[in-house]
Automatic annotation (TrEMBL), chains A, B:
The lineage of its organism: Bacteria, Bacillati, Actinomycetota, Actinomycetota incertae sedis, Candidatus Hakubellales. The gene is plsX. Its main location: cytoplasm. This is Phosphate acyltransferase. One of its GO terms (molecular function) is phosphate:acyl-[acyl carrier protein] acyltransferase activity. It catalyses: a fatty acyl-[ACP] + phosphate = an acyl phosphate + holo-[ACP]. Homodimer. Probably interacts with PlsY. One of its GO terms (cellular component) is cytoplasm. It comes from Candidatus Hakubella thermalkaliphila.
Length: 334, 334
């Protein structure tokens, strides 16, 4: 049966327009798909009509409420049960869809997922896994922000979930697992990381040791494990550094005529580097450790990013990533 | 009296050559300075001679041992008391110099400073402060790696020390203090950061709130406070991201003839951006909270970086930064 993907039509800075367009686009690549857009019917159908969409691959489920990007996660999911985010996740929980995709409030998405989908048996904490562009194969970092306070055992579980995800998505049987740290030696880091290093070393994972921030873009590890505080700081620091450098370059390139002429020739190269850093190509963050596939795109997702998030959701459904994580966890618990 | 700067002639990947050349260079800018090069006399004097240096502004103190970049900090300073690093710091402790500059092993430098210079009264933990290039005014981040495990009160003290340092170095009376975090709201972050936020808010510092990784290069804060684990991950992630992007660009710029022609025109712009990110311009990391000025340059420091580290050391001596930190701490302790 074709996967049925529930999409939060109201999530993100450019919803519903870009979300709906992304859903339409993805059907060109995956024609068998069923997409259920959850949101304000009138607004959603307006976009479908303006795009000239007709067909039965997209259904619309009408709900009145929207959770904003800045709303408090736990409060908003309590007070807005009729929001696209909560209603959509409930549909997955009730088996009316195979995966949930949103570009909305990450915290609310996590809170609602925990409440309605619940954790996989044995999983101590779910984690947010993000794909960091660096050429091929890409890097997966987790936890990117679900758990600001971690215990060492959480980090070991992140490694196991990251392994299963990486394997499903990039076809590497035993991905190299690294631990973010401030030095290569196993005695380096905070007490959390020293203990986590020991646990990872004893595990049967393909653990390659500590990875420093400057080595993230090397290919020492495929999956890098961090606590959610550090992981979140890392992805935002990469984002900040990249946009600072690219905007500095653009400014200097367009400053004088000589540079202007040169930049005509170089624009393709600059565009290519920009694209290689483009999170939109990478399909958003996956919430790992839940009884269901949940993908949260960047708040500023455009149609392309939404399209790619849906694609990743389909892959995760087809690869049975959730079932595989459950199996690994069972093995751990035994 | 002219400041007397003790320089670890054997510290860093390009020692003694680049260190000695940096010392010679700085005398062109600060002719009144006294520099004491500590290291293997024969090797050091060979460089002085080959550079044609003659004069009494540089003295050489002969010690036989060298602490390598990869040696264990505490063990190495115990077993190698006759190393340039330990002997140099001892000289500062004994009043034979006003500041210590090294491009050697940061951990060993910290351990030896704690042992011989000791902490300023009231300082719970010394911190490593680094200057991050982002245009003017630059950003100071601390702790960049001295304390992997922190308590909230450490972070408040880092903020106070950072303030005094920033004021001394960049002339801003009440620099804006930010706390690294994973969101803007004060309820965000790990328990360490939530408590630290509360302490900073209650303090009389010019606290501007949480700063996310993507905002480091904005100008929300002048001084950003972090625990040493997170701070170290940040600076290395910036380093890794920047060199990844610049090398990608360089590769693409030189790939085909059309780009090659363009890159001739753009090389100045690329060089300028590279320079703006160059830690060598910023004079290394300052160890704050000790009874003495200690500056540790990047291990890969060349003459220019050494020269700038010495310049910063002179500034800190002249501005009496250590005395000012001691005064603030007294006020805190009362």
């Amino acid at each position: 049966m074709a996967p049925r993907i529930i999409v939060d039509a109201m999530g993100g800075d450019y919803a519903p327009r870009e979300v709906v367009l992304g859903a339409i686009e993805v059907l060109r690549f995956l024609p068998g798909l069923q997409i259920i857009l959850v949101g304000r019917r009138e607004e959603v159908e307006k976009v479908l009509q303006s795009a000239g969409f007709a067909g039965d691959a997209i259904h619309v489920v009408d709900v009145p409420e929207v959770i904003g990007m800045e709303e408090h996660p736990v409060e908003s999911i309590r007070s807005k049960e009729d929001s696209s985010l909560v209603a959509g996740l409930k549909m997955v929980a009730e088996g009316e869809g195979d995966a949930f995709v949103s570009a909305g409030n990450t915290g609310a998405c996590l809170a609602a997922s925990l409440r309605y989908l619940q954790r996989i048996r044995g999983v101590l904490r779910p984690a947010i896994a993000v794909t960091i562009p660096r050429g091929s194969p890409p890097l997966v970092l987790l936890d990117a922000g679900a758990n600001a306070d971690c215990r060492p055992e959480f980090l070991t579980q992140f490694a196991i979930m990251g392994k299963v995800y990486y394997r499903s998505r990039f076809g590497v049987k035993e991905p190299k697992i690294g631990l973010i740290n401030i030095g290569e030696e196993e005695t380096k880091g905070s007490s959390l990381y020293i203990t986590a290093h020991g646990l990872l070393k004893e595990s049967d994972l393909n653990f390659v040791g500590n990875v420093e921030g400057r080595d993230l873009f090397g290919f020492k590890a495929d999956v890098v494990v961090a606590d959610g505080f550090t992981g979140n700081v890392i992805i935002k620091t990469i984002e900040g550094t990249a946009s600072m450098i690219l905007s500095q370059l653009k400014e200097k390139f367009t400053r004088d005529l000589r540079s202007k002429l040169g930049s005509l020739a170089l624009l393709p190269a600059l565009r290519e580097v920009k694209r290689s850093l483009d999170y939109q190509e990478y399909g958003g963050a996956l919430l790992l450790g839940l009884n269901g596939v949940v993908i949260v795109g960047h708040g500023s997702s455009r149609a392309k990013a939404v399209r790619n998030s849906i694609k990743v959701a389909v892959e995760m459904v087809q690869e049975k990533t959730v079932e595989k994580i459950a199996k690994e966890m069972e093995r751990e618990v035994r």
